[in-house]
Amino acid sequence: MFATTDNTTIVPDERVWIDQDGSVLIGWDTTNNKGAPLQIDNDTAFSTASAETGQSNLYLHNDTSGGGSGNFGPSIGFAGPGTARRHVALASVQTTADVDQVGLAIFTHPSSTGGDAVVEAVRIEHTGRVGIGDTTPDAMLDVVQSDASGAIPVLDLEQADTSEGFINFVGSDRGAIAGATNSAGSVRAEINGTVYRLALYADA
């Protein structure tokens, strides 16, 4: 057990416990041991304030790369179940020239060669845009399948409930298309810069 004092009292405050099973508890004593190797308790409520004032149970900082668009900050690495190599990682990333606009990068290890580097698979920009296979998403969800020989679809939807739709379009209806018999409305689609309207028909 480790304890500190605020110098105004001779009674120390318990801060860190190492239980007999090796568990390290920060912020609470061994009576609350849940069995995990590291347990951190915090009596400060979460807030959305950017200034860290103790509201995070774990706060990471790394400014080695310095500010710059595309530069990475602190990270967390994960090994695979059968190796000690780092094969997955999460890292903060500056997404514009502004050091205050920061997102999250998710890295995976697609190679079968253990020594190969991890590769960024998902980017969440400061705007909330999500890029899968794309580090500069142009839409709220931007999915890029860059393997020309991959022979896989960009999006695969499965719906077990046949009474529900696969996709719900919520927005302004572009209106029925002239010449599309019985069409009830339409939605706008763009392919390689060319705009199209897809006819919609009422559910039978």
How would you characterize the overall build of this protein?
- With 204 residues, the protein is mainly β.
- It has 3 domains: 1-44, no CATH class; 59-143; 175-204, no CATH class.
- 0% of the residues lie in helices and 32% in strands.
- It contains no helices and 12 strands.
- A hairpin with an 8-residue loop joins strand 1 and strand 2.
- The chain is elongated and about 85 Å long.
Order of helices and strands: EEEEEEEEEEEE
Strand content: 25-35%
Structural class by SSE content: mainly beta
- Per DSSP, the total helix count is 0
Query: Uncertain regions: pLDDT < 50 for 5+ in a row?
Result: none
Q: Could you tell me how far the N terminus lies from the C terminus, measured between alpha carbons in angstroms?
A: 70 Å
Integer-rounded radius of gyration: 25 Å
Number of strands: 12
Which terms would index this structure?
0% helix, 3 domains, single chain, mainly beta, four-stranded mixed beta sheet, elongated
